[in-house]
Specification:
Layout lengths: L1 H16 L6 H29 L4 H28 L2 H22 L7 H27 L4 H33 L1 H28 L11 H7 L5 H6 L1 H27 L5 H25 L1 H8 L1 H21 L3 H25 L6 H33 L4 H39 L1
Length: 437
């Protein structure tokens, strides 16, 4: 009887998702791993950002500059480690190290009378974790499933990431005040520790169920990341890559301005209240992103074209910044933050990634790590310093800084139109050439 029910269940899964019966355990385990990783991160993120409201703009700006150099260092160390150790040993090592580090923060924070230094270290470390937890996971997936299996399985696994990004922020939103920030750290650390035995179990399933014992991940891209400097030349010699870099820089600048304004407006709230508010923002953002990805994103580029798709969020943000200048209140800012982040994840980011198909594979693989890490984190460092200069150096208030942000958003939108038209022009040319052929 049990075998009959199990057979019917696996047949139903196969029809609905194309996941074969021998792949079901590995798929569900992978789903659980990415679900826990994303949920843990989104438990930690509001805790991290709630701390920032207790610090000045200059202090946060310094942390962002520090974060830039630490990120480059960690990327280089990671590249060295994967070149020396078997990848199957790297994955549990990475997640164990992060889990133990967050346990250390949990035990260390109450020990100090003034835990500011520990909290700032935690702030920077969570940002480092955000760079690696998903990247390492998908490399792990490439080391587990073969190419044919990945086409059927990865969409199901990716749903685990979306679900984790929705469930994770709900925990601090609902329980921050009751549990306290320290216990939220503990929850995330325990979650990451649970990932380790699941990873080890996956390697058993890789050989016993998937029969991929001879499969090894293609770490060529990871090795390129260890030599990120080789992509600089392409960025400065290829106009498309240079424009993409500028596009990302302007996006980062806008994100920094909204983040700092959010930090300052939340300063009057308690840390528990801030954590609940920020967790709520994450929950709304991730739910909207999930819905937009299903019902909107795929239609925008085909219906509106790349230029309109890329420019949509920048011009909405420009309008939001202008509204914020005349109504500098927390509700307007939080609505702007949700719109910016959901729009980026669901619309701008997918469209932006399509732009890389407009350059050669060699330029793409060498330059993309530079853009994603060095340009992005460098933009954080520079924009944080600019905001601190405007607010604390020149004494500009929220309204004036919002108008500056509106100008940056307008420039961002103009560049988006340029990149989109260039991309649409190339796509039209290729289509016409194929028809003629």
């Amino acid at each position: 009887m049990t075998k009959t029910i199990t057979k019917k269940f696996t047949d139903l899964i196969d029809k609905a998702t194309k996941v074969h019966s021998n792949e079901l355990k590995a798929t569900l385990t992978s789903f659980a791993i990415i679900f826990i990783l994303m949920a843990s991160y989104f438990v930690l993120r509001p805790v991290r950002d709630a701390m920032a409201s207790d610090w000045s703009d200059s202090e946060v700006s310094f942390l962002w500059n520090l974060q830039f150099f630490i990120s480059i260092g960690i990327v280089s160390i990671y590249g060295f480690v994967i070149s020396k150790l078997r990848f199957k040993n790297v994955v549990p090592l990475v997640y164990s190290a992060f889990a133990l580090s967050f346990l250390a923060f949990y035990f260390l924070t109450p020990v100090f009378t003034d835990p500011t230094l520990v909290e700032k270290s935690f702030y920077v470390w969570v940002s480092a974790f955000s760079l690696f937890h998903v990247s390492v996971f998908w490399s792990f997936m490439a080391d587990t499933f073969n190419k044919e299996q990945s086409k059927r399985v990865f969409s199901v696994v990716a749903a685990g990431a979306s679900l984790g990004a929705i469930v994770g922020p709900a925990i601090p939103t609902v329980f921050a005040e009751k549990l306290g920030l320290d216990n939220l750290m503990l929850i995330a650390a325990v979650g990451l520790l649970l990932v380790v035995p699941l990873v080890i179990y996956m390697y058993r399933l890789k050989s016993e169920d998937l029969h991929n014992e001879n499969l090894t991940a293609d770490l060529s891209e990871a090795k390129l990341k260890a030599q990120w400097w080789t992509g600089f030349k392409s960025i400065f010699t290829n106009k498309t890559l240079l424009a993409i870099s500028a596009f990302i820089l302007l996006y980062v600048f806008i994100g920094s301005f909204v983040y700092f304004e959010q930090k300052n407006l939340l300063a009057d709230y308690s840390r528990a209240d801030r954590t609940q508010i920020l967790g709520g923002i994450d929950w709304i953002t991730n739910t909207l992103t999930f819905l937009l990805a299903f019902f909107v994103t795929g239609r925008l580029t085909t219906k509106l074209g790349m230029a309109a798709t890329l420019a949509l969020v920048p011009f909405i943000i420009m309008a939001g910044m202008i509204i914020l200048a005349f109504a500098p209140i927390i509700v307007v800012l939080l609505a702007l933050q949700v719109t910016r982040r959901a729009g980026n994840y669901a619309v701008t980011r997918p469209a932006r990634e399509m732009l890389f198909t407009d350059v050669s594979a060699d330029e793409r693989f060498k330059s993309k790590p530079v853009i994603d890490i060095v340009v992005y984190r460098g933009g954080d460092a520079v924009s944080g310093s600019i905001f601190a200069l405007l607010s604390e150096g020149l004494g500009l208030g929220l309204a004036a800084i919002s108008l500056v942000g509106a100008g940056i958003a307008a420039t961002w939108g103009g560049l988006a139109v340029y990149l989109g038209k260039k991309y649409d022009g190339v796509a039209t040319f290729i289509t016409a050439t194929k028809k003629e052929a």
